[in-house]
């Protein structure tokens, strides 16, 4: 590859006073400039956004045929193939694309893998175009058959991992699988009134409450109590 690179940082999260973690995406090109490659990896920064460490072993690579390096439509590729990152106090959880299982890894800030979660999962097909649109797919993705298995990662006030997944359409809402110390505990379906799976990014847990930033025309914040029977 030629050394022609565009780079960007997104989803930055502060871990401590002097540590920020996020995803770094860079674009490179083949020697004939007919193919673009997008590489996304996890990066640790200091308070001045200077790179401390790049976890290059944890990365996602996509490629696309292009006509010119001046115009690359990465939006043509399914957005849900991106890495899912959840920073926590002593490291981070990461989930790569899969439509057939729940697979999440946890790493400490040195890059050492400290946990691996894998759970069987029944593949969830798209029912129709309306169903595809809910998960952020336009008509250009009409040939996609199955939904991504992990659509979001969250940590509650008890430091349990909540894994958001598509439900099977029998009940309205988002299905969550809850893990504690890497061990599966239970699952639940919450109807949060989301108009699109994209709005899962508005979820935040504080103590025994789930807060949802409302992205619709009214905006605002909704609060849900977590009650375990």
Summarize the model shown.
It is built from 1 helix and 15 strands, in the order ββββββββαβββββββ. The protein is an all-beta fold and 229 residues long.
What can you see in these coordinates?
This protein is mostly beta strands and 229 residues long. It has a domain at 1-77. The protein is 3% helix and 50% strand. Strands 1-2-3-4 form a four-stranded antiparallel sheet, with no helix packed on it. Strands 5-6-7-8 form a four-stranded antiparallel sheet, with no helix packed on it. A four-stranded antiparallel sheet has the order 9-10-11-12, with no helix packed on it. Strand 9 (152-155) and strand 10 (161-165) form a beta hairpin.
Q: Widest sheet: strand order?
A: 1-2-3-4
What is the distance, rounded to the nearest whole angstrom, between the alpha carbons of the first and last residues?
56 Å
Shape: globular
Structural class per helix/strand content?
Answer: mainly beta
How many beta-strand runs?
Answer: 15
Name the beta content range. Answer: over 45%
Ranges where pLDDT stays below 50 over 5 or more residues in a row are none
Question: What is the topology?
Answer:
Elements (H helix, E strand, L loop, with lengths): L1 E15 L2 E11 L5 E11 L5 E15 L18 E5 L2 E5 L5 E7 L5 E8 L8 H6 L17 E4 L5 E5 L8 E7 L2 E8 L12 E4 L2 E5 L7 E5 L4
Antiparallel strand pairs: 1-2, 2-3, 3-4, 5-6, 6-7, 7-8, 9-10, 10-11, 11-12, 13-14, 14-15
